[in-house]
Design a protein that fits this description.
It contains 14 helices and 18 strands. It is α/β, with parallel strands linked by helices and 431 residues long. Strands 2-15-14-18-16-17 form a six-stranded mixed beta sheet, sandwiched between helices. The chain is globular.
Length: 431
């Protein structure tokens, strides 16, 4: 099975070194700032200053009925609740914990009869375990599972396709925890009501494909029939096109194809651990990479760990850092400094040497290259022009709302026009 999509960009010249090495643990930060806003939902503290906490102990609960509990990522002492920088919303209160280095854990209870768990039971477990969604600062996984059930999703795709520059954490999680990732996908399929599970891997990842095939072959024959390994085109942004690439037509839902659901290897791993071990998400894998001088690795770090510590451990010294980007190199957000901490909805931290001077928005020569790489089949140059003229009605007619802000247009533009940023402003104005 091979799937592709229109447009996109191949980054063969940018080797993802981070995926070559085993995940590196960095869990000895002396002090952590655990933000009370992990995925857009504000939580309120449940611990007192001066109290001792254990790893996996609930320390904050959502202010509303939905959202995920925040658990202590280490054992130690709560020394305060103070305002801390947040990369997405400015400043948010954070619980400050002094790490005692002992990693003493609160007892967790695994599910005794996993096979008997019903879909809503599994969704509740995903909520209780605070499993994050596939994109940074996206909805929690349990909310996405509820939407999948509502939409009648039949195929659940575990996206293992690393097509963005420098990214490597999805490959590493899959290679190092193949069996658990597979079991987690089966659990998420049951929760979403999907009849088929697919591991989507780029065609060049022979080692990952071999590991997955071996894991599937070890399953009972009945389970093997539910799982498939699909090779997808090695071009960015494959992750944004998974729903359409694996959509299925079902007459019970009308003529319109039913889009596939998409999840991540880390969500699968977290689901398996939540059911089999009873543990919630307190640490995440992050790709730390870029073009600055330093090691390119995937690190496993507790939430609340200062980003500066990750950079220092991998050799990104102050004089070598240029631009810090949270998320992908194509559409991540630039950080003004390193005074942020790990959230459970992060994916990549890149230290990039700035090499491009962007031009004015009216320097477009309408060469059409941006349209040739747009995965949505749009005409970014014309959309950019209408947004600049504040003609949002015409921009909507040309499909501005369909734009995924993937960044392909800006990357390919010979005039170095910041097309993606202009379109982002246009989308905000429409909303």
């Amino acid at each position: 099975m091979f799937r592709s999509f229109q447009g996109g960009i191949r980054f063969h010249s940018l080797e993802n070194e981070a995926k070559k090495y085993e995940i590196m643990r960095i869990d000895d930060a002396p002090r952590l700032w655990v933000s009370l806003r992990q995925e857009g939902i504000v939580c309120r503290p449940q611990v007192e200053i001066g109290s001792r906490v254990l790893r996996y102990q609930p320390i904050a609960v959502p202010e509303r009925s939905y959202g995920g509990v925040i658990y202590s990522p280490v054992s130690g002492t709560v020394v305060g609740v103070e305002a801390a920088p947040h990369p997405f919303v400015g400043t948010v209160d954070a619980i400050v914990i002094d790490n005692d280095g002992k990693m003493e854990e609160m007892p967790c209870t695994p599910e005794q009869n996993a096979e008997a768990l019903q879909p809503l039971d599994l969704i509740e477990i995903a909520q209780r375990a605070a499993i994050p969604g596939p994109k940074q600062y996206s909805r929690p996984e349990y909310m996405r599972l509820l939407k999948m059930r509502h939409n009648g999703v039949q195929t659940l795709v575990c996206n293992v396709a690393e097509t963005a520059p420098f990214s490597g954490h999805m490959i590493r999680v899959t290679l190092e925890h193949t069996d658990q990732v597979l079991r987690g996908l089966l659990l998420l399929m049951r929760a979403a009501g999907a009849r088929r599970g697919v591991f989507a891997v780029t065609s060049g990842e022979s080692k990952t494909i071999s590991a997955l095939r071996h894991a599937v072959a070890a399953c009972p024959e009945e389970t093997q029939r539910l799982l498939h390994i699909a090779q997808v085109a090695d071009k960015y942004p494959a992750a944004d096109r998974m729903k359409e690439m694996f959509a299925e037509r079902d007459l019970s839902f009308g003529e319109k194809p039913v889009e596939a659901g998409v999840t991540t290897p880390f969500a699968c791993l977290s689901m398996a651990r939540a059911v089999e071990e009873g543990v919630p998400v307190t640490e995440i894998p992050i790709t730390v990479s870029g073009t600055s001088a330093g090691s390119r690795r995937v690190v496993q770090a507790p939430i609340g760990t200062p980003l500066s510590l990750l950079l220092e451990r991998l050799g990104y010294t102050g004089e070598d850092r240029n631009t810090l980007v949270l998320g992908g190199a194509m559409n991540g957000i630039a950080l003004g400094d390193e005074n942020y901490t790990v959230l459970r909805c992060m994916g990549s931290l890149l230290s990039l040497v700035e090499t491009t001077d962007f031009s004015r928005s009216d320097d477009c020569i309408h060469c059409g290259r941006c349209g040739s790489v747009c995965p949505q089949g749009l005409s970014p140059s014309f959309l950019c022009e209408y947004v600049r003229q504040e003609n949002l009605a015409e921009a909507k007619l040309l499909g501005l709302e369909k734009c995924k802000l993937c960044g392909c247009c800006t990357y390919i533009c010979p005039g170095r026009v910041e097309i993606t940023e202009i379109l982002k402003q246009g989308k905000k104005a429409i909303q």
